[in-house]
Amino acid sequence: MKWFVDFLSSTLGRKLLMALTGIFLILFLLIHLLGNLQLLKCDGGESFNRYANFMSHNPLIQIISKVNFAIIIAHALVALFLTLYNRRARGTDGYIVKNTKSSAWASRNMGILGTILLVFIVIHLKDFWAVMHYGDLPTTADGEDLYSLVAAWFKVEWYVGLYVVCMGAVAFHLWHGFASAFQTLGMNHLKYNCLINFVGKAFSIAVPALYALIPVMMYFQNGCCHK
User: Fold this and answer.
1) pTM, entire model
2) Which of 53, 76, 114, 174 is deepest in the core (most CB within 10 A)?
3) Which is it for the CA torsion 167, 171, 20, 111, positive or negative?
């Protein structure tokens, strides 16, 4: 067991943990997006409320949710350790993939981008997750009415602006992080580099863009999607 602890305490072990937690969070982003897109259905929030209540009351999903919180914390802590290590050893490349000017910029600013995202996650959890679990929400036939809470926040200009800006940070974070994760896992073979880079860039643009589209569209809704 000591060898495992020593491995995770090493720079290589931390990079591996960073890659594995990063891939888990990439999958979480995609699955969470599929649920959030229910917000755009013109059914008065019925589809989203069914999704939200299923996610909040299913025992298996709740276990995965707690694991997800742990992985977010682990990802942030390991990123901090690697950032501090790279500052002390500036003669090395650190956790960087040098593919394009954009990825180089993202790699140099992963700490800043990660901090923005961590602050956003805390705000997001406070305004939605905490209210859903510990607040006093109105109820519908499908359970608690989380849709009304989301719709109210997405009518607040500064919140919509914050959400869009943070999704931009997610895009830059993924632009570098997606390729870095596969490189750390040893999957940067010439046969797969083009595919990994293409998928990574497409994912880093499309997923944050769709996340950002949701509050923007809800902000400009004229009420035709409410029953």
Assistant:
1) 0.80
2) 174
3) negative
Contacts of 24 (CB under 8 A, 6+ apart): 68, 71
- Looking at the 3D structure of the chain, how many domains does it have? 1
Residue 226 lies in a domain: no
Backbone angles phi and psi of 143, in degrees to 5: 120, -150
Closest to 185 in 3D by CA, of 23, 68, 74:
23
Please enumerate in sequence order all residues whose Cβ is within 8 A of that of 168, keeping only pairs 6 or more positions apart, or say none: 208, 212
The pLDDT score that the predictor gives to residue 165 is 93
In one-letter notation, the amino acid at residue 174 is L
Within-domain flag for 112: yes
Consecutive H or E run containing 143: strand 143-144
Residue 40 · residue 71 · CB < 8 Å: no
Condensed to tens digits (0 to 9), the pLDDT of residues 114-130 reads 788 888 888 988 888 88
Q: What is the per-residue pLDDT across 51-99, written as a single tens digit (0 to 9) for each?
A: 988 888 888 888 988 898 898 888 888 877 777 776 776 554 444 444 4
Q: Is 170 exposed, middle or buried (0-12, 13-18, 19+ CB in 10 A)?
A: buried
CATH number where 30 lies: 1.20.1300.10
Per the structure, the complete domain to which residue 197 belongs is given by 2-220
Distance of alpha carbon 148 from the chain centroid: 23
What SS3 class is residue 163? Answer: helix
> Read out DSSP for 58-77?
-HHHHHHHHHHHHHHHHHHH
- Spatial CA neighbour of 187 closest among 14, 5, 20: 20
CA separation for the pair 120, 140 (Å, rounded):
29
Length in residues, the chain: 227
